Amino acid sequence: MEKFQFSLEKVLTYRQQLEQEAKLEFAAVQRQVNEREAKLDQIAKERAQMLTVPEQTLGRMQIQHRYLAQLEQVSSELKLEVDQLQGKLDQALDGYVKAQQQRKVIEKLRAKKEAEYQQAFRQAEQKQLDDLANRKQLIS
């Protein structure tokens, strides 16, 4: 029996590579989002900690006010960054899903062609067996 060879094997390999690249891109953007969100949590904790300082002198209050304003500015910048990254994350997820769908289409086609090949092989084998049986009947 000759081994099954899928004519679009290189296309399948290429689509698998595209899917892997899309998956890596999605993971990279997800990691960036997680990092920014962790920084936001850290800033929120630091802000809460600054508000619980018991010593309240005028100089200390001014420094604390400026520091809290700076934390708020950094926090708002990080929130904008997270929003932008969420858009990139959605695009990366869409790209990954599309690459997965394209790969699956080729894999289903491969499975169908392999099943057809197996069926044709079984039919040819059965025909050979039938011919062999007919020859034996004619000889005897």
From TrEMBL:
> Which GO BP annotation is one of this protein's?
chemotaxis
Write out the entry's keywords from A to Z: Bacterial flagellum biogenesis, Bacterial flagellum protein export, Cell membrane, Chemotaxis, Coiled coil, Membrane, Protein transport, Transport
Question: For this UniProt entry, which residues form the secretion signal?
Answer: none
Coiled-coil intervals, chain numbering: 26-130
| Claim: Cell membrane is one of the keywords in the record | yes
**Compartments, as annotated in UniProt:** Cell membrane
Please provide one cellular component term from the Gene Ontology annotations of this protein: plasma membrane
Pfam families the record matches: FliJ (PF02050)
The membrane-topology field of this record reads: Peripheral membrane protein
| Main subcellular location of this protein, as a coarse class | membrane
Q: Which family does it belong to?
A: Belongs to the FliJ family.
Q: What is this protein called?
A: Flagellar FliJ protein
Q: What is the species of this protein?
A: Ligilactobacillus agilis DSM 20509
